[in-house]
Amino acid sequence: MLDYKLLEALAAVIECGGFERAGDALGLSQSAVSQRIKALEVRLGQPVLVRTPALAPTPAGQRLLNHFQQVQLLERDLRQALPTLESASPRLRIALNADSLATWWADAVGTLCHAEGLLLDLVVEDQDVGLKRLRDGDVAACLCASPQPIAGARCVPLGTMTYHPLATPAYRAHHFPAGPTPEAFRHAPAIVYGPHDQLQHRFLAQHGYRGAFPFHLCPSSEGFVRLARAGMGYGMMPLMQVDEWVAQGKLVSIAPGEVLEVPLYWHFWRHSGELIERLTAALSALSLR
């Protein structure tokens, strides 16, 4: 029989990124958390954490984390059926991309969170890599661009986010006087969200350009837009985030009529309980473009 206090300690160490912060989250000393991890490893007969070069779960630890995520969701359904059980606000750890968080996410889940008393622990990841968080057992669900479900999980298509290559009119006139040419791409500074962000590369590939290009690295959706509005570069942005600036002519496309469409898929563990099913229904009701 598994001791769920030990699994809780494992989940806290991974989510908090260390033993000391995990202890703070659980109301325990760092030593007590370490002892629980050691007890789990002794009971399992193998390590559950890799401590160097970076703290991460072993394959066995990942399976335990996946199991713990699902048990937490199922226990939440049980508390609803048996109200006399000790109850706490349900909490879901979810990975999603920054652009979704900055635009449609809150409108899609706000009503459900209020009705269910649901608390969210949101992990911001690029849509191309969020699925790794789910596979590693770090999150209960994720938004990503992959249509392929992992073993034990379900995948639901949510729609498509459409990105436009936008910059200020002055920036376009200076850097793209002849339009989106290879020479312009080679010298015009772009804005890239993070090291895993491939939107800019895909857009350039659509134009047959696969060479190097100068870029600002900006891991903030709001900061991304502010850099573009300041004339510092061009970048791929969803219209729903910048429709006001586009309508006022303060941001324009460097390649009018050309867009990049990114499909989004909602991945979550099977048998995760009714709460995940209701969250999935709320997300599926949204029409993304």
Automatic annotation (TrEMBL):
SUPFAM superfamilies: Periplasmic binding protein-like II (SSF53850), Winged helix' DNA-binding domain (SSF46785). One of its GO terms (molecular function) is DNA-binding transcription factor activity. Keywords: DNA-binding, Transcription, Transcription regulation. InterPro entries: ArgP, LTTR, LysR_HTH_N, LysR_subst-bd, WH-like_DNA-bd_sf, WH_DNA-bd_sf. PROSITE patterns: HTH_LYSR. Residues 2-58 form the HTH lysR-type domain. It holds the Pfam family LysR_substrate. Belongs to the LysR transcriptional regulatory family. This is ArgP/LysG family DNA-binding transcriptional regulator. It comes from Halomonas urumqiensis.
